[in-house]
Amino acid sequence: MKQHLTYRLLSVIPAVLCGAVLAFVRIPHPASIAVAIAAAAVCAALAVLAFCVRKQFGSELAGGSTAVTFASSIVGLLLLACFAVSVYSLYFAPPAERIAVTNTTVVLLADLFSLLAAVYFLLSALIPSLLANQGARLLWAMTPVLYCAFRILSDFIATGTMPLANGGGYHILGMIFAMLFLLCEAKLIAKKGKPFAYLACGQIAIVLNAAYNVPLLADFKGATTAELLHGVMFLAFALYIAVRLFTLPYAQPQTEEAIEQA
Hints:
Elements: H1 2-10, H2 13-26, H3 33-53, H4 66-92, H5 104-126, H6 134-158, H7 168-189, H8 195-218, H9 225-246, H10 256-261
Helix pairs in contact: 2-3, 2-8, 3-8, 4-5, 4-9, 5-6, 6-7, 7-8, 8-9
């Protein structure tokens, strides 16, 4: 049991600690090249760690624990809040306060999948029996992946010719690895996933989202309500990822018959 707990801690704690350190270093030095290089080195080291511990975990998701239910509920509620704020800012705010967007179609798709992803997380937390069918669950599990994809595209277009300025690299890459983690989760639901990809993408997503969003929330004066809300939401994604990694089931020992067949 102690060995199993050690591997569970290794799957989460290094990423959380590294993300916290990078975040607090970036608060006074948001554009530091040295910090960016350190972040790249940390992500590479976490990928190596994920490779080393991959055989200790199974290729399936754990049942709904209290921690997973809580994290899923938080993410679902924040996705709903992001949907509501975005729709209000685009269509119902006073004309002088409405947000002008470069590509309306991409924003609408991001909002649509934000709503659908919110329903998925809330159903997973509150009424998991509605997702008992594997096909239906897999279909719903793709909604947060598509939300992240259109959110990445929307933010990339909105930043114009300088998408990596002002910490944008952490932002875009953090969303990309969150999307990849969610895609790996969908593959685990489909019984086709691998623990290494799930662990590596999850740990890197935790680091990059913490490194970007904590400084954003700490120095919130120049950010809009929508940007701050999205920052909180991707920190909630980081919490969800950490909980999922910590509750990932251990690999089942092979029986002698299975070993002989292999």
